[in-house]
């Protein structure tokens, strides 16, 4: 089961597309964080979702928030995804699905990609919203912005 509103977000550290370690705790020191899980880099749906987050990045920043995308893709594929679409925010590699499992978005069959889900995490680590749509790619960023406005 995915985590719910009011749950504490699991702390994690993963490598980003540049091979740098990114820790949720470090990001939360700066403000709320939108953590979105996507099935696979460079696929049509994940590209549309990620580009929408990119297009709303200034609005996220104006609300004091940042975002990170997480998939099981390796670091080099995350880097290609970032450079191909000029995403400009951390894309984290979770190849063993440990972080996806901690958030409850790992599929029951291990070789399948993660479920598409987004968590809006407040500075204190509390999950303030959970967005879980596999088909509405814009909903994740749009609703994240609305939730952040209400904090």
Short description:
By secondary structure, the chain is an alpha/beta fold. It is built from six helices and seven strands; from the N terminus they run E-E-H-E-H-H-E-H-E-H-E-E-H.
Secondary structure blueprint with pairings:
Layout: E1 13-15, E2 21-23, H1 24-28, E3 33-37, H2 44-55, H3 57-62, E4 66-71, H4 75-85, E5 91-93, H5 98-103, E6 117-121, E7 127-131, H6 139-150
Parallel strand pairs: 3-4, 4-5
Antiparallel strand pairs: 1-2, 3-6, 6-7
Structural features, described:
This protein has six helices and seven strands; from the N terminus they run ββαβααβαβαββα. With 151 residues, it is α/β, with parallel strands linked by helices. The chain has one domain (13-150): Glutaredoxin (3-Layer(aba) Sandwich), CATH 3.40.30. The strands form two sheets. It has a five-stranded mixed beta sheet. The longest helix is centred in the first third of the chain and has 12 residues, at 44-55. It is globular and about 35 Å long. It starts with 12 loop residues before the first strand and ends with a helix.
């Amino acid at each position: 089961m995915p985590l719910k509103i009011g749950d504490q977000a699991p702390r994690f550290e993963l490598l980003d597309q540049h091979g740098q370690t990114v820790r949720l705790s470090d990001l939360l020191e700066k403000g709320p964080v939108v953590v979105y899980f996507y099935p696979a880099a460079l696929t049509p749906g994940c590209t549309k979702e990620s580009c929408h987050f990119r297009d709303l990045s200034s609005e996220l920043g104006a609300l004091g928030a940042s975002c990170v995308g997480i998939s099981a893709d390796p670091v080099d594929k995350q880097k290609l995804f970032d450079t191909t679409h000029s995403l400009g925010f951390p894309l984290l590699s979770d190849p063993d699905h440990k972080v996806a499992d901690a958030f409850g978005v790992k599929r029951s069959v291990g070789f399948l990609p993660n479920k598409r889900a987004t968590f809006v995490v407040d500075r204190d680590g509390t999950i303030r919203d959970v967005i879980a749509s596999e088909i509405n790619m814009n909903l994740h960023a749009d609703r994240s912005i609305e939730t952040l406005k209400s904090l």
